[in-house]
Write a structure and sequence with these properties.
The chain has 84 residues and is mainly alpha-helical. Helices cover 80% and strands 0% of the residues. The termini are far apart.
C-alpha cells in the first residue's frame, strides 16, 4: 500500500529538482538520462497505486484506469501536434 505513494514522492522530489531547484531542459531536445527516470517514476507510481486499488475497490480502480488512459491519449495527441 505504501509503495505507490512512496514512488510518487520520489517522482515529485525528482520533478522539483529538474524543474525548479536546478532547472534542466530535458523534454526538448529529449535527454534520455533525465527523461527516462522522470517518466518511469511518474507512470510507475500510477501503476503501483492502481494495482493496489484493484484489490480494495474495483470501481475506483476503473477510475484510475480511465484517467490513466485519458492521460496517455492526451500525451499522444500533444506529441503528434508537436506540443508534447
Amino acid at each position: 500500500m505504501w509503495a505507490g505513494p512512496a514512488l510518487f514522492d520520489l517522482f515529485v522530489i525528482f520533478m522539483l529538482a529538474v524543474d525548479y531547484v536546478r532547472p534542466v531542459e530535458f523534454r526538448r531536445p529529449a535527454k534520455p538520462a533525465i527523461l527516462a527516470p522522470y517518466l518511469l517514476r511518474f507512470f510507475g507510481s500510477i501503476l503501483v497505486m492502481g494495482l493496489s486499488m484493484y484489490e480494495l475497490n474495483r470501481g475506483l480502480w476503473l477510475v484510475t484506469v480511465g484517467t490513466s488512459a485519458t492521460l496517455l491519449a492526451s500525451m499522444a495527441v500533444a506529441m503528434r501536434r508537436g506540443e508534447g
